[in-house]
């Protein structure tokens, strides 16, 4: 008998599995339908031996000391401050927009005070801030909105900013200094040996069994458990009873070049040119030394794996209908971006998982337990090239089910 069946081995599921196993001595079965742990943060070496992020760049940053200290148990860190440039008018300029962006774009030599006055001059007054367009033009005016934001938003979201909730662009700053960092959080770093190693360390406990390449619905009737933690899409959990919640997905095209460095920044955004939205060169992120380099081109699309919940009123209404169903399910707990239909950064997902753990811990009598290493992993084989691409889960064999029922690994 498992105390918890956890669906999804990304940050939410793995954090909760680790806390429940090590702090409350709970027995956990962690299930994921992909061939690997780590969710979208999974990284691996490509055919050239370059460490890549399979699902696009993941940059860790947080202002939470609690989250940083928690993850520091499972990794050493490589200090890294992310920088992004945008291809605009044939130039590569810093983004978010700052003093250097304006001076380079317009051939000026403004000071911080002067660029602040410049923004006030070009900004358009808005009586109410309702859309993403309202947010941007009220800060930097129409021309900069067209150069940096409108085309990118249309490609990425499939919507014009005038159709989009203000929250989407509200978190993008405009600076009057020369700070070219993409984030300004207190803690900015990358796992020294990658995200996958971090997850492996998190899940290295004898109370945690990991079952990959498996849809939890194939086993939940056969594997006894007391409670479930679900981190997948909430609409899918309820068999799309109120309709499908829309997401934006991504298509990744990887290229390896026979040169140490290919582009002058870790990420270059292309708001107006080309079909892709941005290009990432991974060695900036990982710090790896290698004679070759690998890049990924990102193309936004409507169909595919769910990445970005679309914040529109009609979608919020559908989500609320699903959320009300949870009130009758006290032994099922929802956590993470897909389960709560909200965009979160990695640190926010970890914080949400730690909050849920605290609630579960508060109702549990205190028990002393020793931390033990060695998670038990049962991966159901799949046909394919072995490079980590997702495959349709196969049926679970009777032998595997028997091992899981008895808490044994293969």
Molecular structure report:
The protein is an alpha/beta fold and 410 residues long. Among the domains are: 2-37 and 203-245 and 310-405, Rossmann fold (3-Layer(aba) Sandwich); 84-170, no CATH class. 31% of the residues lie in helices and 20% in strands. The chain contains 13 helices and 18 strands. It has a seven-stranded mixed beta sheet. A six-stranded parallel beta sheet has the order 17-11-1-2-10-18, sandwiched between helices. Strands 5-9-6 form a three-stranded antiparallel beta sheet. Strand 7 (84-88) and strand 8 (91-95) form a beta hairpin. The two termini are 17 Å apart. The model is unreliable at 378-398 (pLDDT under 50).
Helix content: 25-40%
- Put simply, the count of helices is 13
Span of the ends, CA to CA: 17 Å
CATH architecture of the domain at 2-37 and 203-245 and 310-405: 3-Layer(aba) Sandwich
Given helix and strand content, the structural type is alpha/beta
Q: How much strand? A: 15-25%
Low-confidence stretches: 378-398
Q: For the residues shown, what is the average pLDDT?
A: 91
Mind summarizing the main beta sheet? 7 strands, mixed
Say what the CATH topology of the domain at 2-37 and 203-245 and 310-405 is: Rossmann fold
Tally of strands: 18
Outline: globular
Q: Name the CATH superfamily classification of the domain at 2-37 and 203-245 and 310-405.
A: NAD(P)-binding Rossmann-like Domain
Gyration radius (Cα, Å) is: 23 Å
What is the topology, as strand order, of the major beta sheet? 8-7-13-14-15-12-16
CATH class of the domain at 2-37 and 203-245 and 310-405: Alpha Beta
């Amino acid at each position: 008998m498992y105390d918890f069946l956890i669906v999804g081995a990304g940050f939410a599921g793995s954090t909760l599995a680790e806390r429940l196993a090590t702090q409350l001595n709970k027995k956990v079965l962690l299930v994921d339908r992909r061939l690997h742990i780590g969710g979208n943060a999974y990284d691996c070496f490509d055919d050239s031996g370059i460490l890549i992020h399979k699902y696009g760049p993941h940059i860790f940053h947080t202002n939470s000391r609690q989250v940083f200290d928690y993850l520091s148990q499972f990794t050493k860190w490589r200090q890294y401050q992310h920088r992004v440039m945008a291809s605009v008018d044939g130039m590569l300029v810093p983004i978010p927009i700052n003093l250097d962006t304006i001076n380079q774009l317009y051939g000026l030599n403004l000071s911080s005070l002067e660029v602040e006055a410049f923004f006030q001059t070009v900004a358009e007054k808005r009586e109410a801030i309702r859309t993403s367009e309202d947010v941007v033009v009220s800060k930097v005016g129409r021309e900069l909105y067209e150069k940096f934001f409108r085309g990118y938003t249309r490609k990425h979201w499939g919507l014009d900013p005038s159709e989009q909730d203000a929250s989407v662009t509200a978190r993008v700053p405009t600076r009057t200094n020369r700070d070219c960092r993409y984030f300004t959080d207190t803690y900015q770093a990358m796992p020294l040996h990658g995200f996958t190693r971090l997850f492996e360390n998190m899940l290295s406990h004898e109370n945690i069994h990991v079952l990959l390449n498996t849809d939890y619905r194939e086993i939940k009737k056969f594997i006894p458990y007391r409670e479930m933690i679900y981190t997948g899409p909430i609409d899918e959990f309820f068999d799309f009873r109120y309709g499908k919640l829309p997401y934006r997905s991504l298509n990744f095209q990887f290229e390896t070049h026979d040169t140490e460095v290919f582009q002058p920044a870790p990420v270059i955004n292309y708001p107006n040119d080309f079909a892709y939205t941005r290009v990432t060169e991974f060695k900036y992120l990982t710090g790896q030394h290698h004679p070759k380099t690998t890049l990924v081109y990102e193309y936004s699309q409507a169909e595919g794996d769910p990445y970005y919940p679309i914040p529109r009123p009609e979608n919020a209404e559908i989500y609320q209908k699903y959320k009300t169903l949870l009130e009758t399910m006290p032994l099922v707990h929802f956590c993470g971006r897909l389960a709560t239909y909200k965009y979160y950064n990695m640190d926010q997902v970890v914080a949400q998982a730690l909050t849920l753990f605290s609630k579960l811990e508060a109702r549990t009598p205190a028990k002393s337990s020793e931390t033990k290493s060695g998670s038990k992993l049962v991966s159901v084989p799949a046909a394919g090239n072995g490079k980590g691409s997702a495959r349709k889960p196969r049926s679970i064999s009777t032998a595997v089910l028997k091992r899981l029922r008895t808490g044994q690994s293969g």
